[in-house]
Write a structure and sequence with these properties.
Chains A, B: Pathway: Amino-acid biosynthesis; L-methionine biosynthesis via de novo pathway; L-homoserine from L-aspartate: step 3/3; Amino-acid biosynthesis; L-threonine biosynthesis; L-threonine from L-aspartate: step 3/5. 2 copies of one chain form a homodimer. Chain A is of the alpha/beta class and 433 residues long. Chain A has 14 helices and 16 strands. In chain A, a hairpin with a 2-residue loop joins strand 9 and strand 10. The relative contact order of chain A is 0.12.
Chain lengths: 433, 433
């Protein structure tokens, strides 16, 4: 099969990320799709020596690129309304499939763009337009397709969530945190889109359409930002068992649909209340499945590229299927399975929680720590618990270590004269990325 | 287009749920697929007067059902290895598409079943086999397809998580909670599959295959249950900042792949540590998107049916596409968009957090509560805060009320002689289902 050919329009943070991801994960992606993806054109306004563009045609004439016959898919990652709108329409007219991360464009002009796409029998894929790397569009359009969706509530602007998190955790003011967010690059010099909720309203517009099957109606979203939230109210909310989150909410009410973006007190014990920093999450309430929640990075080169390239892969499969009936999703996700070894228990690596009950503590602690140290096991924490039934429980947390070494150490500790009963050993994972 | 025709094998909790969901959400599902789904056969061993089976052929001869020409998709929701294995193989030989929720069957015999499906160019869809209603199979196979997946860790057995949650929250013993779980119907009379991790190992086997592209290797999963976890260790873990969760973990290590199911200490601040009760969640670490998490109901009639029917919808779309090029996923998820009204702000209903700063409190509290009461606004909590800059902040939480009434009340409260500054009004949502 010949490769599927891609034009990437824009090589900024997101576009550069898409290019690099397609290059770095090329082998794994080909294992999934059974087909090569070739970048034939990039649309750029300045040279990009930091990127590998060997063999790729470079041009600033975007309309010309989308008319080229050696382009199957146009990836629009420039952002902004113009000229993205005109370029995508031209691509559609030339029968190109389109992938875009442009939430503002779709929320404000999507009805016409999707109509044009339907008329020309092409897709506009937009997973990256909402919640970055979280595949929330696929989840709602396909994964929850059996459900009548009742409402959804999402933290869909990372900048706003970062500001509210800092205000709560450190008692800082809005102005103070905003300044830091701008210095960190989380917030733009003009932060209006983020802090006044416009960006979230764009995303909510898209989510509501696919949840309820309604046209895109950005102008009807009630939008309120976080700039008036004070440290005082954050504190009072906390005392009452709530946290303030900037949510996009779409809800079917008896009289119609509510579309609203505003600061919201939610109960502290809700998972959504515990989504901190620049992370995003969307909670969906649907009639068959009940509540489900989707969490992850809502912005950044890698996460956005993950969503853009997932859309590309979907389209590559569709193209393969149309061309020769191949390209359905492989049963176990990959066209060819790998025979990489599965490790035995002794070869696995984890941290450990150990509880050793000892009769008399004199010297025992030294004996235990010496045994662990000789096996190369480093201790992360050690805690002597109050005497219980004449025994002193010693609790130890270790750093990750291969299980065979822990086995050796435990055999020796178990054999110490002071050790009573069987040593408790529970594995420990930091789950850090 | 003629309807797509379904046979449902088994009408227990899950099968009954699938039937009811297809009947109850028929209109919404047709809006999504543009095509009718007709249940032509059910495979049952006893009458089901509680279900509406009008016009559906009923039989106990499952092999006969899957050979019928008026069946396009076979939904296997009987569970167990036999005769499910034989029936699915027969269905495949007759060119039927298969949807199953049978994790044990797939984990132990999936390699042969998927091979047979490939040979006959049909799909075996199995979203419901892992984590119930959470669309985790679709997320990993499609949504994260651009990524090299590094590891995943999941709470994928609700019974085990319920037991550990109760032990932690109430200091109860394993045996005590297990007994209650059995009485509540969360745990089987023979709880081995759940509490010894076999069920979780089945699910992990499937997750690992689609994450890494490896054959199903259930026999190589290291599996340890929760029956030896004591209230004492749960408490010590808590004191050290950790929680004990029963996790299925699949990880690429330098020497090979780790597949393991065991109790695990994880940091309290991790979202996974805050997944309580019978709920499931899967955390996936992938190279482009970073960590993402998927949370929801892992079992039960509705959630499982949600996943089964999502698979059916995917297949209906594939069939439509093959037959006449229709059936691609609609751009905004539905074939026909609805013109339901979007409400104005005044028509929206939410709870509220109010802060009224007052100069002198005598009688003011009564004035405020009277105004709220006259507008039909009920107060959920009221808290007088310590005097701040000569003003007394009164904080009020209200039950949900239509915004126009709150506007009226706030205008009146703002006009009270004791009110100083602008009243702070932040919306409040319980996010309960």
């Amino acid at each position: 099969m010949k490769p599927v050919r891609l034009a990437i329009l824009g090589l900024g943070t997101v576009g550069g990320g898409v290019l690099k991801l397609l290059q770095e994960n090329a082998a794994e992606i080909k294992r999934r799709t059974g087909r090569e993806i070739q970048i034939t054109h990039v649309g750029i306004r300045r040279p990009h020596p930091e990127l590998n563009l060997d063999g790729i045609a470079q041009s600033a004439d975007l309309l010309d690129i989308v008319r080229q016959p050696d382009v199957d898919i146009v990836v629009e990652v420039m952002g902004g309304i113009h000229p993205a709108n005109e370029v995508i329409l031209e691509a559609i007219k030339h029968g190109k499939q389109v992938v875009t991360a442009n939430k503002a464009l779709l929320a404000e002009h999507g009805n016409e763009l999707f109509k044009a796409a339907d008329d020309h029998a092409v897709q506009i894929a937009y997973e990256a337009a909402v919640a970055g790397g979280i595949p929330i569009i696929k989840v709602i359009r396909e994964g929850l397709a059996a459900n009548h969706i009742e409402w959804l509530a999402g933290i869909i602007n990372g900048t706003g969530n970062f500001i509210l998190t800092e205000m709560r955790e450190k008692g800082r003011t809005f102005e103070d945190v905003l300044k830091e967010a701008q210095e960190l690059g989380y917030a733009e010099a003009d932060p209006t889109f983020d802090v006044e909720g416009i960006d979230a309203a764009h995303k909510l517009t898209l989510l509501a359409s696919i949840a309820f099957g309604i046209p895109l109606q950005f102008d009807k979203v009630y939008t309120e930002g976080i700039s008036k939230i004070t440290a005082q109210d954050v504190k009072y909310a906390e005392e009452l068992g709530f946290r303030i989150k900037h949510l996009g909410i779409a809800r079917r009410a008896p009289q119609g649909i509510e579309l609203r973006v505003h600061p919201t007190l939610i109960p502290q014990e809700q998972l959504l209340a515990n989504v901190n920093g620049v992370k995003n999450a969307v909670l969906v309430q649907a009639n068959a499945v009940g509540p489900t929640l989707y969490y992850g990075a809502g912005a950044g080169a890698g996460p956005t590229a993950s969503a853009v390239v997932a859309d590309v892969i979907d389209i590559v499969r569709d193209i393969s299927y149309t061309e020769d009936g191949a390209g359905t999703i492989p049963q176990l996700a990959f066209e060819a399975l790998s025979d990489v070894a599965i490790l035995n228990r002794e070869e696995m690596t984890t941290g450990y929680y150990l509880r050793v009950d000892v009769e008399d503590q004199t010297g025992v602690l030294a004996d235990i720590t010496t045994i662990l140290s000789r096996e190369g096991i480093s201790i992360d924490a050690i805690m002597q618990q109050p005497r219980l039934k004449d025994l002193i429980p010693i609790v130890i947390l270790t750093d990750p270590i291969v299980e065979s070494k822990m086995e050796t150490a435990l055999t020796k500790i178990q054999a110490l004269p002071a050790t009573r009963g069987e040593i408790v050993r529970i594995r420990l994972e930091s789950l850090e990325s």
